[in-house]
C-alpha cells in the first residue's frame, strides 16, 4: 500500500526550511508516494520476551505435544528404525554391511590400541560393548563407532607423560578417560551445547588432522625399522629418534611392512575407484593380518616382532578407577570430546542426508556419551565414529543400526574364539594398517583449495598444521582455535559496509562496487551495514560513515548538484541486533550530523531493532518521519529536500499583486515536469517531457 505524502511526515517538506522559502516555492512541496513504516509499541508483550525465554517456552510446548511413541523415540532412537524395519528388503544388506565392517574392525581395533600404548585386547574391548550401546542410543543408522587413530594418538600423548605404557596405571587411566569423555558428551547433548563447536573452523580441523596423521605415521615407523623410537606428538623428537637409531635398522620387518602397506594401498584405491571391487577396501586390513600371520607361521623369522598372547573371552564388568587423576585429565578429555564430536557428528549428518532421514546432533552427542560411559565399565578406552568404517558401512548398503549390532557380534566372536590366532600377527602388519588408514587424513588438496579460494583460511590451516607438528597436539589445537576465534572477532568488529546506488530502470539499490552501473545522488549517501551493530564494531561503523561523508565519488552521481552531503540513509535490513552501546553511538552520531546540518534517515529496520531504538528514544530523537520501509522511499523524500535547497536562492520573492496568467501557470507546470525528469536522469540540459516514461525510473510522483 502506498500513501501520498508531501514529505516523510504529515507536514510539508518546506517545514524543514525557512517559511520564506516555502512561500517562494509552492511547487517544491510536491507530494511523494511512500509506504508507511509500522512502529511497534513498546508495551508489546512479545517484544519484552527474550530469545532465551521464547526458546524455552517453545521447547516446553513441544514436549507437551509429544505422544508416548515420540517419548520412546527420543529416549531410544533405535525404536524409529525397529518399528519400520523391512526384513525382506533390509536384513540381507544390513547383514553383509555388518560382517564387512566387523572384518575390517578386528585388525584395526588391535592396531589402534597399540597406537594408544595399550595392549591389543583393549582395542577389541573398545570395539565390542560401545557398538551395542550406540546401536540403541545413537541416532545415526550408518555410523560405525569404535577405536580411531586420532583419539588413540591423543590418549597416548597425554598418558605417556603420567605413566609408562607397561604399567597397569596407564590402562586404568585410559579407561577413566573413556568415562570422562562420555560424561562430557552426555552433558553437551542434554544441555544442547553442540553449537559451541561451530566456532572451530574447518580449516583448523583439516590442518590439525593432517599434522596428526603425519605424527601417527612416524610413530608407527618403529615397527617397520625394527627398533624403538621415542613416544612423542612432536615431529622433531620423532625424526631425531629415527635418525639416531639408524644403526639398529632391520631389513625383514621393513620389507614385510612395506609389502603389506603397498597391498593395503592398492586394495583401498581399487575399492574406491571401482564399484564392483569395493569389497577390497573393507577386506584390506584382514588381508594384511592373514598374509602376515601366514608368513610368520611358515618361516618363523626371529627378527619380526609379534603381537603375543591375547586373553580369550569377553570383558568383565569393572568400575573405572584412579579418579584422583581426573582433574589432570580434564583438558585432554575435553579435547578428545571436541575431536570425537567433530569427527562423528559431521559424518553422521552427511550419511543421514544421503539416506533420507533426520539426525539430531544433540541426541547423537548423548548416544556417543552413553556408549563411552558404559564402555568404560567393560575396559574400553575412548571411542567415536570412524570415517573409513562408516564410509564402508554406507557403501555396503547398511540401512539401519542392525548392521552395528552384527558388527558387535563379529567382535564378540573374535574375543571368544579367535584370540589364540592373533598371537602370531606381526607388529609391522598392524602398523601398516594404521599408516594406510591415516594417509587419507593428509588433506593437502584442502590446502590447495583454500589457497585458491580464501587466503585467510589457508593461513589458518598453515598455522594450525605447523604448530601441531612442532609444538604438539594440544598446543596446535589451542593455537588453531585461538586464531580462528580471532578471525571471527576481527570480522565481527570490522563488518562489511557498502555504499548503495540505484540500478538504472529500477527502484532497486545495490552495492556500487558490485554493480558499477548503479548511480547515486548528489547530497545523499546510502549506506548498508551488513552485520549486527554492537559495542565491538560501532566505532568502525562510525569511522566509515564519516569517511563516506567526506569522500564523494562524483563520477557516478546524478540529480541536483550540491557541494556537500545533506542526508545519510542507513539501510538496516541486514542488521539483526543492536545493543545499548550502539544505541548511544547512534545518538552521538545524530547530534554530530545535526551540528553540520545533515539529516540521518533509517530504512527497513526489523522489528527487534526498531523496538530497541524506540525504547531508547532514538526514534523520537531522529524523528518518526525519517524511518522508511524502502530505501527508495527515503531517497524520494531526501531528493525533494535537496531540490528545494537548490531552487530557494534562485527564486525571487513574488510581488503581492502579481497573479500569474493562464499561460504562465501552464508554462510553470511544464517546467516542473522537466525538473522531475532531470532529477531522475541527472542531466543538466532540459529533457523532452513528452518522451519521458514515468514508469521507467519512478522517483517522484507526477501531478495528475
UniProtKB/TrEMBL annotation:
Keyword entries, A-Z: Membrane, Sulfate transport, Symport, Transmembrane, Transmembrane helix, Transport
Main location: membrane
Region of interest (Disordered), ranges: 673-704
Membrane-spanning intervals of the chain: 90-110, 116-137, 144-163, 169-191, 203-225, 249-267, 279-299, 329-352, 364-381, 401-422, 429-452, 458-489
Domain STAS: 514-638
Biased amino acid composition, Basic and acidic residues: 682-691
UniProt cross-references to PROSITE patterns, sorted A to Z: SLC26A, STAS
InterPro entries reported for this sequence: S04_transporter_CS, SLC26A/SulP_dom, SLC26A/SulP_fam, STAS_dom, STAS_dom_sf
PANTHER family cross-referenced by the UniProt entry: SULFATE TRANSPORTER (PTHR11814)
Listed name of the protein: STAS domain-containing protein
Source organism per UniProt: Xanthoceras sorbifolium
Amino acid at each position: 500500500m502506498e500513501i501520498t505524502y508531501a514529505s516523510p511526515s504529515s507536514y510539508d517538506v518546506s517545514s524543514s526550511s525557512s517559511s520564506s522559502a516555502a512561500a517562494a516555492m509552492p511547487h517544491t512541496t510536491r507530494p511523494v508516494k511512500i509506504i508507511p513504516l509500522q512502529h511497534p509499541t513498546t508495551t508489546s508483550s512479545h517484544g519484552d520476551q527474550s530469545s532465551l525465554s521464547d526458546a524455552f517456552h517453545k521447547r516446553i510446548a513441544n514436549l507437551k505435544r509429544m505422544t508416548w511413541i515420540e517419548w520412546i523415540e527420543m529416549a531410544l532412537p533405535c525404536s524409529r528404525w525397529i518399528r519400520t524395519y523391512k526384513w525382506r528388503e533390509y536384513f540381507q544388506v544390513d547383514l553383509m554391511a555388518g560382517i564387512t565392517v566387523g572384518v575390517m574392525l578386528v585388525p584395526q581395533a588391535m592396531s589402534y590400541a597399540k597406537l594408544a600404548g595399550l595392549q591389543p585386547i583393549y582395542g577389541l574391548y573398545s570395539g565390542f560393548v560401545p557398538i551395542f550401546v550406540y546401536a540403541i542410543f545413537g541416532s545415526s543408522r550408518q555410523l560405525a563407532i569404535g577405536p580411531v587413530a586420532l583419539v588413540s594418538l591423543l590418549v597416548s600423548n597425554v598418558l605417556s607423560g603420567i605413566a609408562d605404557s607397561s604399567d597397569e596405571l596407564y590402562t586404568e587411566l585410559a579407561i577413566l578417560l573413556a568415562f570422562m569423555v562420555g560424561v562430557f558428551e552426555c552433558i553437551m547433548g542434554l544441555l544442547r551445547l553442540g553449537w559451541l563447536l561451530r566456532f572451530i573452523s574447518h580449516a583448523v580441523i583439516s590442518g590439525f588432522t593432517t599434522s596428526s596423521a603425519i605424527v601417527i605415521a612416524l610413530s608407527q615407523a618403529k615397527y617397520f625399522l625394527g627398533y624403538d623410537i621415542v613416544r612423542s606428538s612432536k615431529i622433531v623428537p620423532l625424526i631425531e629418534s629415527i635418525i639416531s637409531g639408524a644403526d639398529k635398522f632391520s631389513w625383514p620387518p621393513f620389507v614385510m611392512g612395506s609389502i603389506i602397506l603397498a597391498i593395503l594401498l592398492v586394495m583401498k584405491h581399487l575399492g574406491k575407484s571401482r564399484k564392483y571391487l569395493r569389497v577390497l577396501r573393507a577386506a584390506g586390513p584382514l588381508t594384511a593380518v592373514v598374509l602376515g600371520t601366514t608368513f610368520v607361521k611358515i618361516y618363523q623369522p626371529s627378527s619380526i616382532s609379534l603381537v603375543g598372547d591375547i586373553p580369550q573371552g569377553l570383558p568383565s564388568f569393572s568400575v573405572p578407577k584412579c579418579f584422583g587423576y581426573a582433574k589432570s585429565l580434564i583438558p585432554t578429555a575435553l579435547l578428545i570430546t571436541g575431536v570425537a564430536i567433530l569427527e562423528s557428528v559431521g559424518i553422521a549428518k552427511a550419511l543421514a542426508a544421503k539416506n533420507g532421514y533426520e539426525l539430531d546432533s544433540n541426541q547423537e552427542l548423548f548416544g556417543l556419551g552413553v556408549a563411552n560411559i558404559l564402555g568404560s565399565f567393560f575396559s574400553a578406552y575412548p571411542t567415536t565414529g570412524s570415517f573409513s568404517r562408516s564410509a564402508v558401512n554406507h557403501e555396503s548398503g547398511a540401512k539401519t543400526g542392525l548392521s552395528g549390532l552384527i558388527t558387535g557380534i563379529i567382535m564378540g566372536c573374535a574375543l571368544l574364539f579367535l584370540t589364540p590366532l592373533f598371537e602370531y600377527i606381526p607388529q609391522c602388519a598392524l602398523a601398516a594398517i594404521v599408516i594406510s588408514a591415516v594417509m587419507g587424513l593428509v588433506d593437502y588438496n584442502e590446502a590447495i583449495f583454500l589457497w585458491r579460494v580464501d587466503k585467510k583460511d589457508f593461513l589458518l590451516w598453515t598455522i594450525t598444521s605447523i604448530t601441531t607438528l612442532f609444538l604438539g597436539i594440544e598446543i596446535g589445537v589451542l593455537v588453531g582455535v585461538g586464531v580462528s576465534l580471532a578471525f571471527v572477532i576481527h570480522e565481527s568488529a570490522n563488518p562489511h559496509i557498502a555504499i548503495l546506488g540505484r540500478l538504472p530502470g529500477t527502484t532497486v539499490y545495490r552495492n556500487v562496487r558490485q554493480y558499477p552501473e548503479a548511480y547515486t545522488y548528489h547530497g545523499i549517501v546510502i549506506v548498508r551495514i551488513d552485520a549486527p551493530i554492537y559495542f565491538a564494531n560501532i566505532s568502525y561503523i562510525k569511522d566509515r560513515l564519516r569517511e563516506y561523508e567526506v569522500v564523494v565519488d562524483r563520477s557516478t552521481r546524478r540529480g541536483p548538484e550540491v557541494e556537500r552531503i545533506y542526508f545519510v540513509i542507513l539501510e538496516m535490513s541486514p542488521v539483526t541486533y543492536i545493543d545499548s552501546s550502539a544505541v548511544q553511538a547512534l545518538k552521538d552520531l545524530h547530534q554530530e550530523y545535526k551540528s553540520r546540518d545533515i539529516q540521518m534517515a533509517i530504512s527497513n529496520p526489523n522489528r527487534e531493532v526498531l523496538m530497541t531504538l524506540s525504547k531508547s528514544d532514538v526514534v523520537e530523537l531522529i524523528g518518526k518521519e525519517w524511518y522508511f520501509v524502502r530505501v527508495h522511499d527515503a531517497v524520494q523524500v531526501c531528493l525533494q529536500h535537496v531540490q528545494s535547497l537548490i531552487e530557494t536562492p534562485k527564486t525571487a520573492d513574488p510581488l503581492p499583486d502579481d497573479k500569474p496568467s493562464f499561460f504562465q501557470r501552464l508554462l510553470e507546470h511544464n517546467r516542473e515536469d522537466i525538473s522531475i525528469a532531470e532529477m531522475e536522469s541527472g542531466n543538466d540540459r532540459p529533457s523532452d517531457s513528452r518522451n519521458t516514461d514515468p514508469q521507467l525510473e519512478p522517483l517522484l510522483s507526477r501531478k495528475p
